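Sample pair:
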Amino acid sequence: MFELLELLSVGGVVPDVRPEQPPGTEGFTTLLNWISWAAIICGVAGFLASAGYLAFASYTGREINGFKGLVIAIIVCILATGVGAILRVFV
């Protein structure tokens, strides 16, 4: 019984895996960083454009379109920064 518990323990079954980047893939991670940077810049630009549209649309009664743009821009920024954190865990 004790041997079975020892085999099922986390330290006895799961090895301590430390992922490392394969040689020659530095360009790929640089490309991922650039894509992440571009996505964040596009999200911020979309946020600013939607905020400006919201300001002008408030005079015509079409605020909902500006609000939708703000929400989409915020979601884009959250996803772009979240993907970076996820990739840091796995890559």
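Residues 43 and 73 are 5 Å apart (CA to CA).
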